[in-house]
Amino acid sequence: MALYAELHRHLGGSVVPRVLWRYFERHTSELISRFANYPEFEEFYTKPRNTLDEYLELHTLVESVQTVETLPYFIYRLLRGAYIFENLAYLELRYTPYLRTPEHLSQSERIDKMAEIVEVVGKASQLEEYPIVTSQILCMHSRLPYEVNKAIVDLAAQSKQYVCAVDIAGGDSHYAERLEEWLNLYDYACSLGINTTGHLYETTAGCYTELLPYLKRIGHGIQIPLLYPELLPELAQRGQCLEVCPTTYIKTGTLQDIRQLKLVFDRCFDAGVDIAICTDNAGLHNVRLPFEYENLLTYDIINFKQLQACQDAAFRHAFAWPHGERPASLLNELLKPEPPKVLAMRD
């Protein structure tokens, strides 16, 4: 039964190792020629990295094969797994459409091709077989020029049938040298009525208070409660939600021990700041959302009541969830037993 919402999952990092290996075997075996077998590939694909930048390099492996022709293949398998194994009722997929266009084209030609990518992802995500409510978040990228990033914002505004928000990705340590650009782009997105989130305060190098007022949700944001708890009342006042992805911080070397997240959750709960628990890159991690829940409970980072609060927050802050309540509440009403019928007394 589908019960959960996933607010932070990258299309590039969502492909589980086995699916990616089979695709490479059938279509581009040269990309895996250096691996003797599947276990060796899986170990390479899912092992922890030393830094966020090193970790993000893995996205290029998948981006290179996620094209107009192949995206339906990957999305079908992604949604099948999300519905059957993760009990997802709602999924926001984020990615940079420009990076799915052919590299041999000019910049303007690639910009023109982005709309086709969004449409393909949107149509491929509508599966009667696996009825999950889906929407897309289009990611601007720290290593793309201003013209491309502005075109991504424009595309989001023109594609509200499929797109619910914009984001900035590419490693939060790279924003500083172009901070004025990001402020202008987010201001522009807000002026167009586009929802906003952004990879921010994930690492100690990605702390930019100037960007916070432009965001409805904060991608990761764990350094706020860890290093800048004085900002939490402002987040609570603005109704911002943190998208916390526990396994990511171990895989990127951002945290050394998952139990460091207890302070994140405790301070956010105390300040009234919502947290949605997410996977980020379920494929790269080889984990699913229920595992993230279980891990947090196992290490006594949160309790069951707090877990339920995070699950409720995920639906409350979902940009495109069409209902006023989460599925569990709707299901309770549906399954509520009818009162016994009172038979009329006969004379």
How would you portray this structure in words?
Helices cover 45% and strands 14% of the residues. It has 347 residues and is α/β, with parallel strands linked by helices. The protein has a single domain (4-321), classed as Metal-dependent hydrolases (TIM Barrel). The strands form 2 sheets. A 5-stranded parallel sheet has the order 1-2-3-4-5. Strands 6-7-8-9 form a 4-stranded parallel sheet. Strand 3 (133-141), helix 6 and strand 4 (163-169) form a beta-alpha-beta unit. The longest helix has 18 residues, at 107-124. The termini are far apart. The model has no long low-confidence stretch (mean pLDDT 90).
Tell me the series of helices and strands, N- to C-terminal.
EHHHHEHEHEHEEEHHEHHEHHHH
What composes the largest sheet? 5 strands, parallel
CATH architecture verdict: Alpha-Beta Barrel
> How much helicity do the residues have?
40-55%
Cα-atom radius of gyration? 21 Å
Total strands: the figure is: 9
Overall tally of domains: 1
Query: On the 0-100 scale, what is the average pLDDT?
Result: 90
The 3D shape can be described as globular
Strand content: 5-15%
Helix tally equals 15
CATH overall fold name? TIM Barrel
Numbering strands along the chain, what is their spatial order in the largest sheet?
1-2-3-4-5
Coarse structural class: alpha/beta
What name goes with the CATH superfamily?
A: Metal-dependent hydrolases
Q: Give the uncertain stretches in residue-range form.
A: none
The first-level CATH class is given as Alpha Beta
What is the end-to-end distance? Answer: 48 Å
